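so the lab meeting is tmrw and i was supposed to have these ready like two days ago... anyway. pasting both below. for each one the top line is the aa sequence and the line under it is the structure tokens. i havent really looked at them closely yet so no promises
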Amino acid sequence: MEESEKIYFSIGETAQMFNVNPSLLRFWEKEFDLIKPYKNKKGDRYFTKRDIETIRLIYHLNKEKGYTLQGAKDALKGDKFVEQLSKSDII
């Protein structure tokens, strides 16, 4: 692994990746148990690559496929989530 390869991404950097407001990521964090960013003592959120993959899938389902939040939650449950990740060309 290269030294320049990041492990954690700030909420601002993550929001910029998806062209969304940081408030949407905070909302999704509350709605989806799969998103668990690291928080420092100040409460700043730092997302791992796994978090970003999950956000990418939620973004794809919600914004690109038109799923409701509940529909996206249902799609991410159990084996379906793993199947979505393995079949997905968005990650």
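ok protien two:
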Amino acid sequence: LYPTACELAGVAIPETVGGRSLVPVLRGEAEQVHDAVFGYYGDVQRMVRTPRWKLIHYPKIGRYQLFDLPADPHEMTDRRNDPACAEIVAELRERLETWQRRVGDPLAANGSTQ
């Protein structure tokens, strides 16, 4: 958020800041480059979200959850163990693990993504 605040305030974004401004997205000027969003919360949660699916990983307990967002916007039905979703789970796990390695996530380095 810091680069976004800087740009909105008309302040130069310091070179030491690794993030990018979200102003183009806010103004509707950004082209869609990626079809997924990744997130984390401390050392307890990792997530990948596509327009349809959301896979959440809880590394401390080794648990995953999968939600079909258009069909289940309140995330009440975990589809992780649904055989029809096995390929989706595998694909999203791989994408999440690839992202973790790319950003240097210490949990990926510790092998905590299994």
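from a quick look at the 2nd one: The longest helix spans residues 86-103. The helical segments are 2-9, 23-26, 86-103, 106-109. will dig more after coffe
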